[in-house]
Specification:
about 350 residues, alpha/beta, four-stranded parallel beta sheet, 12 strands, homodimer, DNA-binding
Amino acid sequence: MKVTLKTIAQEAGLSITTVSRALAGYDDVNEATRQRVIAIAKRLGYQPNLAARHLRSKQTHTIGMVIPLTSYYSDPFFMELLSGVGRQAAEYGYDLLLSAQQPGEEELIAYRRMVASSRIDGVIVARVWKDDPRIALLREVQHPFVAFGRSNDGNYPHIDVDGLSGMLQLMRHLVERGHRRIALILSPANLVFTAVRYQGYVQGLAEAGLPLRQDYLVEADLSQEGGCAAAQHLLALPDPPTAIVACNDTMAIGALEAARARGLKVGRDIAVAGFDDIPLAAYTDPPLTTVRQPIYEIGRRALDMLIRVIRREPLQEPHVLITPELIVRQSTGGASPAGGQVRV
Amino acid sequence: MKVTLKTIAQEAGLSITTVSRALAGYDDVNEATRQRVIAIAKRLGYQPNLAARHLRSKQTHTIGMVIPLTSYYSDPFFMELLSGVGRQAAEYGYDLLLSAQQPGEEELIAYRRMVASSRIDGVIVARVWKDDPRIALLREVQHPFVAFGRSNDGNYPHIDVDGLSGMLQLMRHLVERGHRRIALILSPANLVFTAVRYQGYVQGLAEAGLPLRQDYLVEADLSQEGGCAAAQHLLALPDPPTAIVACNDTMAIGALEAARARGLKVGRDIAVAGFDDIPLAAYTDPPLTTVRQPIYEIGRRALDMLIRVIRREPLQEPHVLITPELIVRQSTGGASPAGGQVRV
DNA sequence: CTGTTAGCGCCTTCAG
DNA sequence: CTGAAGGCGCTAACAG
């Protein structure tokens, strides 16, 4: 049988209330009584029924996250973020409630369920869309949340990586290497970071006095297969690019594949770069030049912010913008400009 | 204000009971009334309070998992498993409750809390220990669970990979390549799979008529750093091995590092192999020969079993043993025996 | 210092 | 077909 406060109360010959207070550490309980209660609770292996406690107290010490329905392999981003969030949640004694959902309509329903069902105290929203209905929902019902990414109206607690700066660093690096025909594999247009990274690309071209060519822009779906197909298309152009930048590493890895399949040696015949610096990026062949987003750290920090939001403490910095770091590896010719000139 | 059954009842001029039954789909409610109730619920955005529902029904539609407190990078295994479990949980409409904990005492407390606090219907236990106290606990309180791995007394629902077979395949492969001095980097002795994989190693040596050398056995902690240190030790022996097998890929990657630091070309001067086939393994330099555990699939399957356990349906196969597949890559000289002879 | 009372929101008898 | 009553386990006034 389950051990409840009632069980202990009977055993101790006390009321449920007193047992509750003794265990909760209230100071209006006789110390001897308390010790007795604690001893019995321990002996019986009492564990509070959290469903009841949550119902009563309206607090769950649980953070919610909705994650896409994929294997780690096809989308490392979320798992890395999850690691960071989970890690920091543990620090505060919070648990994580995960709901794996197909992106889209289902996902929104999952959010609706989560926030309204009194199971969580707050949520982390990742990979923000333009005019994100999830964020609209959370703001409307005033449910605590922190987002990774900012949408058009970014007036809510969030952390973001400055994709413009990141992409600009990358473009300067490529231009410095002598590239003048640089293509971009775009991520889906509904994601906020797509537009930002695209801006960085455009600005990078402008700085170098290079034209913006529509035929050098292809959209793909963040996956390796998508990146591969996009790169194939670019490489088959009559006037193919000498450098391909992808909006995330997974697509860039697909581009490596496409280049290899065409018999091109990446880093020499063509440059390829990504964005994210997922763990794999350092191990691809050749290792991938990319822009590092410290996802794990961002997860931890987002959770810190969320705890403050939940506790209704003011945020000293509600909008965090992190400047990412360019990581130069062999896929763009390596670290030294001299040794890594690409033949154009 | 929160919308509850009461809100709807007042709005509809009905009792809470009727509203509850209308929404639950009982057939003893007038169809017109039901439609009216449903319309109001929808209009008000009603979401049942799950804390209350759980308290009442003793069912949570939630699966618990305790995961170690690390980043994905340092331990890909759990995240991959988690992906599989989460994926399949979604299939059944279940959510996942995660508690990130320091392995050891803390972890056991987390299990105790989880199972006794009525927040979850079942748990998945991964990376089983010898005489695992977590399993002892779960059996004692008769809480539904499925384990990935079997301990000494494996008489509980579990899935396992046949580590003996896997290791044996690997040993045969190395012996075939001409290796006669094969060292093993062991995982911690308290993990069940360590002993099993060790058995495979011993059996592999015996089959080839090779001696079991104590100086070729080193234990490390599953981490890359640990694997690197262990390999350094092995390579510094007066009579160093020509092949190093690690009990998991992460340690094997550390061994690659150690070999490289010593100026050895892996795949030619020395062979290195791992176990798991984590996503990274295909991308290391050189790509890592390993034994593939289909972790994602195992996660899905474990969840299938768990759902049956929760529903008290009989398991047609309570103890699943999967024979893993040897994946030969360049770190042991590549796929073709001819081209990949290792100099010994 | 301790006990009584009163719900949190939901579901499930049992009456009408 | 609908409503009233009771209770899941816990906590928070309010009395004594």
